[in-house]
Every structure is written in structure tokens, then in C-alpha cells.
Design goal:
mainly alpha, 282 residues
Length: 282
């Protein structure tokens, strides 16, 4: 399997909601997104699913930092790095965005609690906002407000992931909901780690969902009209994840029993709707 086939296969097999947005990109951009996504997914999995001690995980991330430097210098050695080299040669993705992604992933090695939303926002910016900033360089844009759009949307997507993944994160001993907000609503760390479904939990989750909706609204407000067609893939990501948030709400935040998902036909229908609206709009 060559480098191009590897990054495409990694993306398809991941089952990511992002995959449906890639389908509507021209081939050159789609292949660039496969490379970018493969990098993001691989470094994240090195910590989330990788075996070994924290020292081993840090060593793996250091190897990826070195590979990232080689990719920007044009002498990458890993198949993903090789494809990333080709991507950054064509699209002006600042290396600082990919470094920020690595910084965010590294936070997951030791940091398992967030005292406040301010702390959580820093994490979300690194693992999702920086991803958005990289994506829009591939999609293309003319209005600098697109960068605000990318950050707001990235944070909204990450907050949605956090609400969906409470159970799996708890199984890893991680709590991403701000601790000061748990205290405010009277829901303890122990309650969350054991998946207790209580009135304080519902009130806490309603608060979290409302804030996440606010980030989706902020992203929508920042989306430059002139760049809507260029950023249609990002809009597809946003619409799919926003529908996932509403599905979580419709389940009354019952995320401990099973993971809330959208069906593949539903995601494809949402993606097609966004694409058609963007291209048929005057």
C-alpha cells in the first residue's frame, strides 16, 4: 500500500463524521484532507488508544514532532508524513497549527481534569480549533473572518464530542466537563465516573449543550458569505455534528448506556443538503 492509499484507507476506516464532508471536495483537496486527517487521527490514537506508559506516549509524540519538521523540510520518512509534505507544499497550512494539535494531544497524557471552562477552551482550541484552521487552508477562503469561523466551529465540534463520549472518557479516567461547573450543579466526579443519571446531571448537561449551541451560532455568524461555497465541506461537518448534538438532547443526554450515533444514510443526506444549498444559493 502506497502513502496515498494509506491515508485514504485510514480516513475511510475511521468511521469519522468528517469523511462525509470530504466526499464533496474536488479530488486534489480531498486527497490533501485525507493526509491532514490521517496525521490528526494517528497522533490522537497514539495517546487515546496506544499502549505503553506516559513516557512511551511522549516519545511517540516527539517522533511525530520530528516527522512534522521533516515534512515541512521536504524529507519526511513516514508514509503519512510523505503525504503531508505534498499537502503543505500545495496548501499554506502554517506549521504552528499542526504543532498546536500535537500540544493538545500531549495534554491528554497527564491532564485528566479541567478546573474551569477557560482551561477546557485551551484544550479545545488545540485539538479542534487548530484543526479547523488547517482545514480552511485546504478548502480556501478570501475573507479573514473564515479563521474565526474555523475556531468557533472546531470548538463546537469538540464540545459535542465531549458530551457524546462521557462514558468512554470516564472509562479512561478522564473528565472534560469543567469541575467548577460540576460543583455548581451538585454533580460529583464520582457520579460522572459511575454514569449516574440524576436531575443535577440533566441540569449540568443542559448547560453544556446550551453553550455548545452558542458556539455553533457563533460559527454560523462568522461564516463569510463570499466563501460559503469554498467552505461547504466545513459546513457539512458542522451540520452533521450539530445534528448529533440534537440527537443527544433528544435522548435526554442518556449517553452512558450506548454511544449516540447518526446513521450513514442520515449523515449522507445532511451532507448532500448542505452541498446543494450552497451551490444553488444566488
Amino acid at each position: 500500500m502506497n502513502a496515498a492509499e494509506l491515508v485514504a484507507t485510514l480516513t475511510r476506516r475511521s468511521g469519522s463524521n468528517f469523511y462525509y464532508s470530504f466526499l464533496f471536495l474536488p479530488r486534489r483537496q480531498r486527497e490533501a484532507m485525507y493526509a491532514f486527517y490521517a496525521f490528526c487521527r494517528t497522533v490522537d490514537d497514539a495517546v487515546d488508544q496506544g499502549a505503553g506508559s506516559p513516557a512511551d506516549q511522549r516519545r511517540i509524540l516527539q517522533e511525530w514532532r520530528a516527522e512534522l519538521r521533516r515534512a515541512y523540510a521536504g524529507d519526511a520518512t513516514h508514509p503519512i508524513g510523505i503525504r503531508l509534505t505534498e499537502t503543505v507544499r500545495v496548501y499554506p497550512i502554517p506549521r504552528e497549527h499542526l504543532e498546536a494539535i500535537l500540544d493538545g494531544v500531549e495534554m491528554d497524557i497527564d491532564k485528566r481534569r479541567y478546573a474551569s471552562f477557560e482551561e477546557l477552551f485551551e484544550y479545545c482550541y488545540r485539538v479542534a480549533g487548530a484543526v479547523g484552521l488547517g482545514c480552511i487552508e485546504i478548502f480556501g477562503y478570501t475573507d479573514p473572518r473564515a479563521r474565526d469561523y474555523a475556531v468557533h466551529l472546531g470548538v463546537a465540534l469538540q464540545l459535542t464530542n465531549i458530551l457524546r463520549d462521557l462514558r468512554t472518557d470516564a472509562e479512561r479516567g478522564r473528565i472534560y466537563l469543567p469541575l467548577d461547573e460540576l460543583r455548581r450543579f451538585g454533580y460529583s466526579e464520582d457520579d460522572l465516573l459511575h454514569g449516574r443519571y440524576t436531575r443535577p446531571y440533566l441540569e449540568l448537561m443542559r448547560f453544556q449543550a446550551d453553550r455548545t449551541h452558542a458556539y455553533y451560532r457563533a460559527a454560523h455568524a462568522a461564516l463569510p458569505r463570499a466563501d460559503r461555497r469554498r467552505l461547504v465541506a466545513a459546513e457539512i461537518m458542522g451540520v452533521i455534528y450539530h445534528a448529533l448534538l440534537r440527537a443527544i438532547e433528544a435522548r435526554r443526554f442518556r449517553v452512558f448506556e450506548e454511544r449516540v450515533r447518526l446513521s450513514a444514510p442520515r449523515k449522507l443526506a445532511l451532507a448532500l443538503g448542505v452541498y446543494l444549498r450552497a451551490h444553488l444559493a444566488p
